TrEMBL record, chain A:
Species lineage: Bacteria, Bacillati, Actinomycetota, Actinomycetes, Propionibacteriales
Protein name: Sulfate transport system permease protein CysT
Keyword Transcription: no
Location in the cell: Membrane
Annotated keywords: Membrane, Sulfate transport, Transmembrane, Transmembrane helix, Transport
Residue spans crossing the bilayer: 38-65, 85-112, 124-146, 158-175, 207-228, 262-285
Record's bilayer topology term: Multi-pass membrane protein
Entries under NCBIfam families matching the protein: 3a0106s02, permease_CysT
Automatic annotation (TrEMBL), chain B:
Bilayer disposition of the protein: Multi-pass membrane protein
Originating species: Nocardioides koreensis
PROSITE patterns: ABC_TM1 (PS50928)
Name of the protein: Sulfate ABC transporter permease subunit CysW
Pfam families: BPD_transp_1
Transmembrane segment boundaries: 12-36, 56-82, 94-115, 135-153, 182-203, 242-263
UniProt KW keywords: Membrane, Sulfate transport, Transmembrane, Transmembrane helix, Transport
Length: 293, 269
């Protein structure tokens, strides 16, 4: 840490990147914007750790998956049990993302525009799924929807259990992306529209919804990515029954436990690709929003 | 600001509250209720079980190291990303977020492929030199570090961007050294963001399950963490202790949330 700032002004190591007008302009106005020798050392140490922890292990997945070639993918994906797991995971993730688009937006709306006693409590409860350990989340849901359910629902070990677990862990995403945008929304435009005779539904559809769409999209992407990769909350709740409630993560784990690292890596690399795709898509959405101001 | 009509308002309120109540509040309440069904017996049983006590100690140890490493790494990377320009900065800042959307199982597999002692990339060399990573605490700490990696950075970066570097430049021009500037100017202004990041990382680290399950080998009493105990006990039909351990984990994580909710307004003022 101290290494970062130990050195005062030093020459920038390596060739400076002359990419883009923006960068050059930035450097001219603030000359300290390049790395000092100490900062370069800090960056070096951080990058070694980041590589050892994240980059090399993720590269190992791609390499292991790639070493088997296409045949590996074909064998892994043509296994009917794996295919069933992929289908279940994707359908449930899409379903729960759609549910979140509605409920997340409604909850964000209620949190920002409505006023009632106990609203702060609701605001804190929204974050509980983020903080709660996933295995505990599974147990928590079992207590209401499992065999001892006070509601008489026996959803454990069914497809509904998967839906429930995914709904639980993805609850905060859209709420937390939409809420700040809704808070910043100016009331004037809505009032102007109302004074010009626009009806409430028109105002919502033509004024409020368009400004929320990027936030909803960003939240939906996050919640889809999370739903695709969920594991912990499903362990106790869904029973991991092959062809019925087994999701992709569980499949990967089964491959690992059976010593089939190549198969595990092939399936994991697909999940990784989906995750990267979501990150890139999010980055694009956010940059478009930032450009619009 | 346009007002919605009364029935619509009530419908929205009911939908929001009903959904959150049925999905989160009631189930969490039931776990608390199950824990204290027979008074304090469940908790007492939990603390009397040496395996669980070991697991709790191990969880705290792993979380402590993971949070400490992520704190140092996170603050360093945040300062570098905000205060300096270097080639590959955009790529790095995008890659930092990768751990948030990678499945814990994939994290476990990734680390296993590199560090397992039999056919890993680095594992055999490390083990020949006496460093066991997989199925031991270093692997568990690494897995925990991986999943909680971006949390500190995501809190600190926006604050660093917002405060700008005017004060730092002023301090430097008045003769303060780099270390002095960091300790007296930068650190105090990002203090709350760091605390917030640490609290979130702690909650995440205590509760990691999937990645740790793969890297720990799940040996009872030796490499079993609290979350693994919950799974094991529940599957052994020892519901009482499973609920009690869950309650402890949930209690700590919700306490973290409340602390954060408490700190947040202070940060903005």
């Amino acid at each position: 840490m101290t290494a970062t700032l130990d050195e005062v002004e030093g020459p920038a190591p390596g060739p400076a990147s002359p990419t883009g007008r923006r960068l050059r302009r930035a450097r001219r106005s603030t000359p300290r914007n390049t790395l000092t020798r100490g900062a370069a050392l800090g960056l070096g140490i951080s990058m070694v750790w980041f590589s050892l922890l994240v980059l090399i292990p993720l590269a190992a997945i791609v390499a292991t998956a790639g070493s088997g070639g296409w045949d590996q993918y074909v064998t892994t994906l043509s296994n009917p049990q794996t295919w069933a797991a992929i289908r279940l995971t994707v359908t449930q993730a899409v379903l729960i993302t759609l549910v979140n688009v509605v409920t997340g937006t409604v909850i964000a709306w209620v949190l920002v525009r409505d006023r009632f006693p106990g609203k702060t409590v609701l605001d804190v409860i929204i974050d509980v799924p983020f903080a709660l350990p996933t295995i505990v989340a599974g147990l928590v849901l079992l207590s209401l929807y499992g065999p001892e359910s006070p509601l008489g629902l026996h959803w454990a070990n069914t497809e509904r259990a998967v839906t429930l677990a995914l709904a639980f862990v993805t609850l905060p995403f859209i709420v937390r992306t939409v809420q700040p945008v809704l808070e910043e929304l100016e009331g004037d435009v809505e009032e102007a529209a109302a004074s010009l005779g626009a009806r409430r539904t028109t105002i919502f559809r033509r004024i409020i919804l368009p400004s929320l769409t990027p936030a909803i999209a960003a939240g939906a992407a996050l919640s889809f990515a999370r739903a695709i990769s969920e594991y912990g909350s499903l362990v106790l709740l869904s029973g991991n029954l092959p062809y019925r409630t087994e999701v992709v993560s569980v499949r990967v784990l089964t491959f690992i436990e059976n010593g089939n690292k190549a198969g595990a890596a092939a399936l994991a690399s697909i999940m990784l690709a989906v995750a990267l795709f979501v990150i890139v898509a999010l980055d694009l959405v956010q940059r478009r929003v930032a450009r619009r101001g | 600001m346009v007002e919605v009509s009364r029935p619509v308002k009530w419908a929205l309120r009911l939908l929001a509250l009903g959904y959150v109540f049925l999905l989160v509040a009631w189930p969490v309440g039931l776990v608390v209720q199950h824990t204290f069904e027979d008074g304090l017996t469940n908790l007492a049983d939990t603390f009397a079980d040496p395996d669980i006590v070991n697991a709790l100690k191990l969880t705290v140890m792993v979380a402590f190291w993971a949070v400490a490493i992520n704190l140092v790494f996170g603050v360093t990377i945040s300062v570098l990303l905000v205060r300096y320009e270097f080639p590959g900065k955009r790529v790095l800042s995008a890659l930092i977020d990768v751990p948030l959307s990678v499945s814990p199982v994939v994290v476990g597999l990734a680390l296993l492929l590199v560090y397992n002692g039999r056919d890993g990339w680095f594992g055999p060399t490390l083990e020949a030199n006496g460093y066991q990573v997989v199925f031991d605490s270093p692997g568990m700490i690494m897995a925990t570090c991986f999943v909680a990696l971006p949390l500190v950075i995501r809190e600190v970066v926006p604050v660093l961007q917002e405060i700008g570097d005017d004060q730092e430049q002023a301090a430097r021009s008045l003769g303060a050294g780099a270390r002095q500037t960091f300790l007296r100017i930068t650190l105090p202004s990002i203090k709350w963001a760091v605390v917030y990041g640490v609290v979130l990382s702690t909650a995440r680290s205590l509760g990691e399950f999937g990645a740790v399950k793969i890297l720990s080998g799940n040996y009872t009493g030796r490499t079993q963490t609290a979350t693994l105990v919950v799974e094991g006990k529940y599957q052994n039909f020892e519901q009482g202790t499973a609920y009690a351990t869950s309650f402890l984990l949930a209690f700590v994580s919700i306490a973290c949330l409340v602390v954060v909710a408490f700190l947040r307004p202070k940060k903005t003022h």
